[in-house]
Design goal:
It is a single chain. The protein has 344 residues and is an alpha/beta fold. The protein folds into two domains: 4-146 and 307-340, Medium-chain alcohol dehydrogenases, catalytic domain (Quinone Oxidoreductase, Chain A, domain 1, Alpha-Beta Complex), CATH 3.90.180.10; 152-285, NAD(P)-binding Rossmann-like Domain (Rossmann fold, 3-Layer(aba) Sandwich). The chain has twelve helices and 17 strands. Strands 3, 4, 5, 8, 9, 16 and 17 form a seven-stranded mixed β-sheet that branches. The longest helix is centred in the middle third of the chain and has 13 residues, at 147-159. The two termini are 17 Å apart. The protein binds zinc ion (ZN) (2 copies).
């Protein structure tokens, strides 16, 4: 009889259960991985609420995963049972122009493991061996679980160009905003202001090294930010991606400056001040996920202690309490919520 495993099934925010399914078997070039830690992402809670433009319900989540290799298919023998790994969840075609130019994060046929395919919020899963990275010696599973969430900010920061000596505003102090702060600091930004509606999140941004943390709903936010940063801002990272944050971004940014859209928009149309974009030569650029280079940079950042894990991971729940993990993750006071999986 094949082993039965538990797997999280999300039908809605109020209907998150464990299904029992047969353990998967690794095919050629695939690994069988036993999950140890898996993060709940903002995209997971958006999807559960039915708000994510690219994730359909029901779905089986888990794209921020750490685990231990439990088996290998033919061609995946570079890995041995017991190897600790993190997954890089972008599943790409390798043939389209974007893939061939190395930008497989925007593959024309991109699927994200745990978003458009069953994910790692389960006991055991299979994944192509080229989509995993070994966890460096000395890195805990909890730290390793932050590599994926940090890789997106690392990619976004790389898009902005050389940040050395430049001023930065980060709109939104959720997990992505706080990790953009860490990545921008590491990339050499001179001064960084973070905005958020919640005082608790602003305090956390200050503890994580922001030079200023400003109330996102202040009527004089732009003046406050310009005062804190010494003038209009070289680069704005919009981790909120709503009409109000884009309006703030275009008012905050310097002439010739850059706005990087990091947050997932609501879907539909978002008004943008094109007159300012044109007149001030503002560059607006989107950013999606990451590639292997960003992953390796994120891993070395975590290994170097550049991210205060205790400030980012605010709650952990066992797999059987995945519903509670999602509920906690919706609480705006939480930053990163993790699910831990113990081998049965
Ligand atoms: Zn994510
Ligand atoms: Zn492709």
């Amino acid at each position: 009889m094949t082993e039965q495993i538990r797997r999280v099934l999300v039908r809605s925010l109020d209907d998150i259960t464990l299904e029992e399914v047969s353990a998967p078997v690794p095919g050629d070039d695939e690994l069988l991985v036993r999950t140890t830690v898996v993060g709940v992402c903002g995209s997971d809670t958006h999807a559960a609420a039915g708000h994510h433009p690219f994730i359909d319900l029901p779905y089986r989540p888990g794209h921020e995963a750490v685990g231990v290799v439990a088996g290998a298919g033919k061609g995946a023998e570079d890995f041995a049972p017991g190897d600790r790994v993190i997954i890089e969840p972008n599943l790409y075609c390798g043939r389209c122009p974007q893939c061939r130019s190395g930008r497989y994060n925007i593959c024309q046929e991109l699927k994200v493991f745990g978003c458009q395919t069953p994910g790692a919020m389960t006991d055991l899963f299979t994944i192509p061996a080229d989509r995993v990275h070994r966890v460096p010696e000395g890195m805990t599973d909890i730290e390793a679980a932050l590599v994926e969430p940090l890789a997106t900010p690392v990619h976004a920061v790389a898009k902005a160009g050389d940040l050395t000596g430049r001023t930065v505003a980060v709109l939104g102090a959720g997990p992505i905003g706080l990790l953009v702060l860490a990545a921008a600091r590491h990339a050499g930004a001179a001064k960084i202001a973070v905005t958020d509606l919640l005082p608790g999140k602003r305090d956390r941004a200050l503890r994580l090294g922001a030079d200023a943390a400003l109330p996102a709903d202040a009527t004089d936010l732009v003046e406050q930010a310009h005062t804190a940063l010494g003038g209009p801002v070289d680069v704005v990272f919009d981790c909120v991606a709503r009409e109000q944050s884009m309006a703030q971004a275009t008012d905050l940014v310097a002439k010739g400056g850059t706005i990087i859209v990091v947050g997932v928009g609501a879907g539909g149309t978002t008004p943008v001040r094109l007159d300012l974009v044109q007149d001030r030569e503002i560059r607006i650029e989107g950013t999606l996920m990451y590639t292997g280079d960003d992953y390796r940079t994120a891993m070395s950042l975590i290994a170097s202690g550049a991210v205060d894990t205790a400030e980012i991971v605010t709650a952990t729940y066992p797999l059987e309490d995945a519903a509670k993990a999602f509920a906690a993750s919706v609480d705006p006071e939480q930053v990163k919520v993790l699910v831990t999986v113990d081998a049965p």
